[in-house]
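Bench notes, afternoon.
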Amino acid sequence: MRRVRSLVFASASVAAIATGAMAQPAASSSDDTMLSEIVVTARRKAESLQEVPQTVNAVTGATLEKLNIRQFEDVQAVVPGLTLSSGANGFTTAATIRGAPFQAESGAQPTVAFYLNDATIQSVYAFQSMFDIGQIEVLRGPQGTLRGQSSPSGSITLTTRRPILGEFGAYGNLTVTDQHARNLNGAVNVPIIRDMLGLRVAAIIDDTDLDGVGSINNRLTPSSKTWAVRPSIRFEPNDAITVNLMYQHLEKKQRSFNQVASFSLFEPTAPAIQPIIRPKDRVGITDDFNEVDQKQDTFTANADYRFAGQKLSYVGSYSNQKIHNFSLQDPANIFTGVDLRQEVLSRSKQTTNELRLSSDQPLFGRFDYTVGVYVSDFNPPTDVMQVSAATIGGRLARIVQTPVARKGKAHEESIFGNATWHIGEATELSGGVRRLWYRDSNSLIVNGSPVLNNKQDKADAWLYNVSLSHKFTSDFMVYGNTGSAFRPGPFVIGVFRPLTPTLERHIDLANEKSKSYEVGFKSTFFDKRVLFNAAVFHQDFNNFIQRGQQVYYVNQNQLGETVGNFNFGNSVDAKIDGVDVDASWQVMKGLNLSGAFSYAKSKIKNQPIACNDLNGDGVADVLTQAPTFAQLKAATGTAALSECLNNGALQFTPKWNLTLQGEYARPVTEEMDGYLRGLFTYRPKTEGDPNNANDEVDGFGLLNLYAGVRSRDGAWEVSLFAKNVFDTTKVLTAEGSLVGTNVQALQPPTFRTAQAATINAPYVRVLTMTAPREIGINLRYAFGSR
């Protein structure tokens, strides 16, 4: 079945990852040597994290401020096992949990679902500058019976701060760093009708040099400029009714360059061609740049009505986004002074509505329930102007433009129910089901000719989740759960030629189904001064939707057949096994320590994937440069693409990682405390893709340090910080072949036919690196309700 999804569709455990600094107090404690209680809404109700029979990580707004986390992508530093990535084009955002990778370009629904104020959103709305956030919750394992969208690996919920009804207040937060970052954010809280109606207006201005990657052939610097405003309204006319409304408008402009490094640094036998560019130089070679202009409008609504011990809840959202993107198509910088950039104009709208009825108080003192309906509509039209260079004798003859228009709609609706039986005071049995119906219709027009014409597709599925927990004491709980997930198979956009059966297998992907099993415990010791949680899990996938590495294939355009490269999709059976561990220790008053560890090992079960196989031996080749058209044609024949059996890993990020945190604070005066805190993350040696010789990474650690003073009443704070203190420089991902520009060489005597060719430069594309050392100062002032 074909399911064309937009490129923009991307668009705990174990307990709080941290220390008391990360905790959101649920109730004040008379003993400040105890760990603060963490309150989460993982099961659509407020409860202590230690009561949830599931792996959950919670990062509070206070933690985001204390660790100076300004971009959503940096949250991965405090949540082990979470990988967050965003591309230069504005819409290739992705999250990975528990070893199940996701690439937005696959067109599939994400493996990790995103929610804003409990409403479904595309991930691209989260990958922005963060401000006035109340809490971020990371739920691990299959989601869908309680939350709107099915996701096999987990979900991430962002909750913005809501108005405080009883007191006027405001705060301002300023960060300035030596990496040309300037971030100013704040909020004003106004109780319009005391204890009934409140307004909160938050805003941000964020100006950075992005990743710091410039170009030796362009004097412009990289930049990212964001501004946003977010008014929120809270209305509570009585004890029965609660209404929260939020609107956010965000605009972002971004300019970036493709980073490269000399090939001779990766392959010692290669000639050292000048200029030698090292990864630590953080530069590219193009005289042009990538450019993104992004605008977002987001609205969420939450309403609760309590009656007769029951609660009727509504959650809805509307999001509207426009992304205008220009991406480089001459990465080898062959045609200097020529604007050879592909233009993409992506517009998307999504509405979600959920209505549910739940027990506000247990029925008969033993049973809780939730039933509801969910509806989502998504409309993501995208226009692409593909460009390629036609050459004569190596010189540019003309630019070939191929317009591509994609239109379509996706509709999903479901009904769901969940029930919990409290078997005595210590045991709890919970189970839920969801029945979903998915429909989409799509059209794809290439150069005026329809490739798909209002193609209709549908998929239906049942989801389930069951959990059982038992408290041996009030401080020790053991639990087990199992659940399923489903993702409709996408039609991967990016190949605009007639499909061969082999191409179609890696474009039109099958529906994915998975089952997961988790067993764990949650515990506290020594009068709640020590917390230790752990869980082990196993997950089986049938037709896991994977986006593979770059593969060469026989493409076609207006000039005929050519060498193309694309990250094809694969539907593969796979399994993942792993462990999550989390611990916190309130050593004494003013001193707390914490650590968290995550491990996940994935394996493909000997499945065919798209590959480079020029010698036809069924084993993927390690290529350092693009093949000639003759080599590619001989290897692929009429299939236009090679396949190889694979029993390797689903992804090539580290199998495990570790985070450690600590803070020590002590009084300086009667009204002021001083503090020192640190954050250390460790990533082990990673071999990467065995078919890519350039992506092996040695193990390394990153250390962030913070020192400052603050008033005891929280009114002001001054903090100095250094991130990546030792300026550790590591290439995390790099392409396996030389940087090359694909061209069409016009052939004599008529110059109306063309032969595909690739002109290489002696460099390798560096995709991601560790961020450079950043030293800065943070100033915060607040009064009133804040």
